[in-house]
Request: fold
Amino acid sequence: MTQTKPPLILIVMAVYRPQPAHLRAQLASIAAQSHRARHLVAVIADMLSGDLVRDLAAELDLPCTCLESDTDLDAVRAVEAGLVQALDLIPVLTAPSDPEPLIALSDQDDIWQDDRLARGVAALSNKGLQLVHSDARLVGPDGCAVWHASMFRFERRHRHPSLRGLLYRNNITGMTLTMRARVARVALPFPPQSGVHYYHDLWLGLIAAATGGVGLIDAKLVDYRQHGTNAVGAVDRQKGWLRAGKRALPDGMWIRHEAAAYALARYLAHSARNRISDAVGDGRLPAGDAHPDPLRPYLRRTCGMGQHVRDSAKLAFTGHLALARIAAGFAVVALGRTLWTLREALGPGLDKAISAFDTRLYSMSPGLFPKPARDAIEQTLKPLDHDTLIDLRKISRWQPLFDAPAPALTVLVPTLNPTEIFAGIVTALDIGLGLAARGFRVRFVATDLPVSSVAVSRSFVLKRLPGITPEAAARISLHCGVQGRTLSAHRDDVFLSTAWWSAHLADTLIREHGYTQERFVYILQDFEPNFYAWGPEYADAMASYGFDFEPVFNTTLLRDYFARQGFGFATPDRLAFHPAIDIARYAAGVRRETIGPRRLVLYGRPEVARNMYTTGIEALSLFITAEGLGAQDITPVSIGLHHDPVRLPGGVLLESLGKLPWEAYPGYLLGTDLGLSLMYSPHPSHPPIEMAASGVRVVTNHFPQKDLSLLSPAILSAKPTARALAAALSQAWHSDPVTAAERAIDLTSMGLPLEEMVDRLAERLTRLMRTEAPDNLR
Reply:
């Protein structure tokens, strides 16, 4: 009898600053598997540990491929890169006659049972299953002490949730799963996200459940090591809720929390349905294997509440109380979504439409609106509350509690949600992080928008400072100033404002609450009054320049502009820094050769007047017409803020991607040929510089005394008119590819490097805060 050849299993592992002893123990457990046909795909997510992995794998005689990264990768992007590499290796390591290869995932510091892979292969002999996973033991940092015999029991996981049930709470842990390669082929690329809102195991589980099925191996096949640097770690999620008492009752924060969870579930449901549809269309998936129907409650434009209510009742009846609460929360949000839609359609929307029609009607004859009866004025005209007409961004919505042990720099930013963060906020974050690294306590406060997830926001913020030490991270705190009624503070705190309204907020807090520091730091990133027509916002922005503050200018260009406008604080000795752009990161990226139509990227933000969106559209239209281009020649894409697609001449369609995830943006530019990025203000916006450093020939506009073409020949600067910009686009279209020398952009003519500016700011803050200088500043 001939023995069947065992399938090859490619094991994808993300490696990020591992403890060598832990990594060795994990690799040893992989090497000792009873299923011998295995190959490790190690993604070096920290850019440092490649030699360590290769040496250990060679010592253990473990076949290994290391995938080096040119930037730090979070767990999700590392696994995504590893899956791509694993699929690429399959035709190299297997023959067409070999059994179907499989893919398993592994953490870097756990310990596998000897039959972890063999049990996975056996479970997948059920032809219907696409992915299997198992239970695990929770062990201590030493890998020996058993903290809990079952992760499933500890976390009260549902053992066999439906496809829809995975979106209430994922029960799959990536380091226990084994799957068919087809799951990865359909799942890649992962749906984009800004920060980490979902993990790879949930997305893979959704695809597997919707294309065949997920199976649970009823055994503890992994010892899951718990320590202080777990990416996620095991959590008893139900216990806290059951003991929360009154805190578990619905309030504003509860609604926002449930809405954020529901939004993620809805996003992943739509992404899964769309991905499966695409996979059927392009042949990756037979039509009969697609079963996304259980996702339907998430896909409906309205309603969907009923199924969540039924799920909640069923889960409660079977003893899954925490999951029942989640399903009930989803029902509440789905109902709220429908009611809000109806209110907008039949309430304010209806009133507004009727009033607009009547206004036109009465303008014909007699020219005046009929005056309502006195007793009907309130009902008919619906007086507004006065506070709806006041700009709440200028007003503190929290009370400072002076209970902090030491003063801190309090950085006021509009938002801390990664999806809402643009370059100006990033600059403020980088300044705050730089000061934390220099020994200062730093408190980031979101002043305009509630914080959706403190954990996600904190992870995003800390990743802005590669190599941050635990001591520096401990000096950083994040707070929601919108819904938090109180905030920890110290009398000697110093505020840092990042926009005119947060300057008003800092000034108000200082005056009303008796802070000893009467001056605050004001990061001036543009001449903000010109963002508005003459009126209240223009006046308030101008008024902010009359407060008592320490100015810090984003570029000498802006400082010089303020000086020309007669502002006495804009003197040459005031701190000015050049754009905080990592030129080396963009310039080092390897360009991807264009196949087919050339890609042109427009920095499109219709709601932001200074980005001149309509001028950009007009310039694109003139350029396409002048060059006689069609869809076979050019693919224009808009990034920045999402907007409707735009039909351009020649059958060319401009599609909008909205805001690209921060992590994906540099790579996207490496596949872009031309750029159009406008900014009608003294501030040199980041995109033209980032595009040029990435090898994109980019067109932008002049502004008095601002000419970005002086930075690099890859930047073409034209008059801010559609015809001049179209002519510059034609010049860029016919130019040679951008050279390496053109990508090496020197920004020092615009001010100090951010690090040097932060050093000097730290010295000034030390004097302001009346504290001893941190050790590195003495």
In short: The radius of gyration is 29 Å. Confidence is low (pLDDT under 50) at residues 238-249, 772-778.
